[in-house]
Amino acid sequence: MTTLAFGFVLIGVLVGLVLMGMHIAIALFGVAFVGIWLIRDNIDLAFRMLELTAYSGIADYLFATIPLFVLMGLLVSVSNVGRDTFQVAEELLRRMICGLGVATVAANTIFAAVTGVSIASAAVFTRVAVPEMTRHGYRPAFSAGTVAGSSVLGMLIPPSLLLIIYGILAEVSIGGMFLAGILPGLMLAGGFVVMLIGLTLAFPRFVLADPDAVKARKRDTDLTPMPAREMIAKLTPIVLLVILVLGGLYTGFFTPTEAGGIGAFGALIVALSRRSLDRHKLWQVMKQTGVISVSILLLLVAASFYSRMLAIAGLPNAITGLVTDSGFGPLGFLFFYAVIILLMGMILDSTSILLIMVPIAAPIAQGMGIDLMHFGIVTVLAVEIGLLTPPFGISVFTVHNTLNDPDVSVESIFAATLPFIAVMLLVLVIVALVPTTATLFL
Question: Which residue ranges traverse the bilayer (predicted)?
Answer without folding.
Answer: 6-39, 60-82, 102-130, 142-169, 181-208, 235-253, 259-277, 289-314, 334-360, 372-393, 413-434
